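Issue 218. Parser rejects a valid record. Input:
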Amino acid sequence: MAKTKKTTKIAFQPLEDRVLVRPAEPETVSASGIVLPDQAQEKPQRGTVVAAGPGRVDRKGELRPMPVAVGDEVVYGKYAGHEIEIDGQEYKILRADELLAKIEA
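Output the parser choked on:
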């Protein structure tokens, strides 16, 4: 079964070096094929960038560009960012320095 990417247009513009990330769906089946109940499912630590700020101005007054763009898949720390809900969908707001990696497909 192929996964289809959902693209949603939301009116949300992160400030400075922050990004809005839609977390990936939690795994419902373990690697060995056991179906996991809701309580046993871990929150995902990866997701898709939905919106990104322009970047942060450094001490020299120069704009440091964002390391990610809308549509990039990223990995972030377990306790990083702030969880918010927009139109019934869960999102995370993260600083660029809280992102651990960008996943290249």
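Fixed in the parser; the record now loads. The two ends are 18 Å apart (CA to CA).
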